[in-house]
Amino acid sequence: MSDRPDARESWKRLGSLATETVRTHLRDLVNDPARFASMSLRVGPLLIDFSRQRANAEVVSALVALARESRLEEAVIGLFDGDAVNTTEGRAALHTSVRAPVDERPGSVAADVETARGHLLEIAERVRSGRWLGVSGKPVRHVVHVGIGGSHLGPELAVRALAEQPSSSALDVRFLANADGGSAVGTFRGLDPERTLVIVVSKSFDTLETLANARHARSWFIERTGRADAIDRHFVAVTANSRAAFDFGIPPENHLPMWDWVGGRFSL
User: Fold this and answer.
1) Which helix (H) or strand (E) holds 178?
2) Percent of the chain scored above 70 by pLDDT?
3) In the predicted model, is pLDDT for residue 123 greater than 90?
4) Is 150 exposed, middle or buried (0-12, 13-18, 19+ CB in 10 A)?
5) Percentage of the chain modeled with pLDDT above 90
């Protein structure tokens, strides 16, 4: 069978169905009282509703056939098992293992993930409980997340989504992604450096915008405290390049790994 999708019979069938379906107005489809029941399904707590799409049972059947012809199920199993599904770079894409239950992780990464999660939770609990102390012995009250793209959007989404949840923590969490100097100045305005923790997130630790903002944060801290030797109490790195993070001044005990098999956009 050809690897070209358009050479598959199901693809050709979908092309014919598209030509037919486009002639049907959606209002004519939704008038069917049984449409919602036949064009929706639940997956756990999620409701997936196709009833307001210009499709019908025949189209759904053709899409399922295309998935089978394309060996989609086999590909999904390979993804979760750690096969080299990233064919352009010849490596696995095992970001799913970082959030999977212990018994569902491939053995090749299970121990590393468990160790890293334990370290992550230990740092988080120290910060939340007030046991992470800064240079002057004060607990952290401000967290500045420095990253860009996928290394910024996911964490900010999570913080915003959970902002209304009850919490005993009084943390002020801010995000710095824009390389414009004004953004950096605004982000750090009003913060007490002795109570601020900076998290630098970069898989490669050489992303231009992130490093520029990280250097600004480091200078801001040193200029106001006079303590270049206290970076270890105020900086954490999330990266695959531990050597570069160490050279920046962040000690290994403050590193959280982002493995080669996790894309930067999954760095949440």
Assistant:
1) none
2) 97
3) yes
4) middle
5) 68
